[in-house]
C-alpha cells in the first residue's frame, strides 16, 4: 500500500513537473524574451498602439481607437499576425474587431486562421486585393487609394509595393500613424523580392510625402544591422553615428526601436536620403550583400 502511494505521489510530481515545463514553454512562446511590450499613445486623438514581439524579430501591433471626440470607440484592431499566441496575450482579453494585413508573407499572416477561429465571423480581415491567395480568412480586400473608417478615424491605404507586388501600408490620418509592414524600417528598407528597385524607391517616396511627425511602426527589429550599414555608407556623419549608438542601447535594453518618426528617418535613413533611383539601387544592392 505504501509502495502504491509512493508510485502515485511520484506520478503526480512528474505530472506537475511536466505542467510546469509546458507552462514555461507557453510563456516563452507568448512573451518572446528579445523585447518588452510597450504602449504608445497619441495624445491628440487618444489612439493607442501596443507593440509586442513575436517569432525571432517580428513586431506585432494591437491598436485601440481614441474616437472622434477623444473617447474610446471600443474598437480593437491588430496589424498582421506574425504569431497567434503573442497576439492573444497582447489583447489582454479584449475582443479583436479588425485585422489589417500589409502583405501575404507567412510571418505576417501565420496567426490569421487561429484569430478567425477564435473570434468567429465578427472579425473583419482586410488585405491587399493583389495578394488574396496568400492571406488566410480574408474578408475585405483593399487597394491603394482606398480609405477605411476604423478606430474613430480615416485609414488610408498606400501602395508600398517592391518587397511584394501587392504590399500596402495603412496610414491613420488623424493620429499620423503609419503601419508600413516590411517597406521601411529604422535606418533601412525592405528587401526587394517580387517588385523592382524602382517600385521600392517610389514606395519610399510616397511615405516621404507624409507629415514629418508621422509615427512609423515598422514590422521587424532590424535596427542593429541597419545601423551598421548606415554608418558604413556614411562614415563621417557624427549625428548618424550617435543615433546608431542610441538604437544599439535600445536593443540591448530589450526596448522596441519602433515607433520611429518620418522626420528622423529623413535625417538618418540612407534609403530615404537617396536622391535618385540609381543611388537607391546602389545602396540596396550593397545592403543585400553587407
UniProtKB/TrEMBL annotation:
Q: Give UniProt keywords alphabetically.
A: Hydrolase, Metal-binding, Zinc
Instruction: Select a single GO molecular function from the record's annotations and give it.
Output: metal ion binding
**Record-level GO BP terms:** methylglyoxal catabolic process to D-lactate via S-lactoyl-glutathione
Q: Does the keyword Ribosomal protein apply?
A: no
The record's InterPro entries line, in alphabetical order, gives: Clx_II_MBL (IPR035680), Glyoxalase_II_hydrolase (IPR050110), HAGH_C (IPR032282), Hydroxyacylglutathione_Hdrlase (IPR017782), Metallo-B-lactamas (IPR001279), RibonucZ/Hydroxyglut_hydro (IPR036866)
Q: Which residues form the Metallo-beta-lactamase domain?
A: 57-220
**Gene3D superfamilies registered for this protein in UniProt:** Ribonuclease Z/Hydroxyacylglutathione hydrolase-like
The cofactor required is: Zn(2+)
Q: Which reaction does it catalyse?
A: an S-(2-hydroxyacyl)glutathione + H2O = a 2-hydroxy carboxylate + glutathione + H(+)
Which segments cross the bilayer?
none
Q: What is its EC number?
A: 3.1.2.6
Identify the metabolic or biological route this protein is part of. Answer: Secondary metabolite metabolism; methylglyoxal degradation; (R)-lactate from methylglyoxal: step 2/2
Which family is annotated?
Belongs to the metallo-beta-lactamase superfamily. Glyoxalase II family.
Return the protein name.
hydroxyacylglutathione hydrolase
Q: What is the source species?
A: Hondaea fermentalgiana
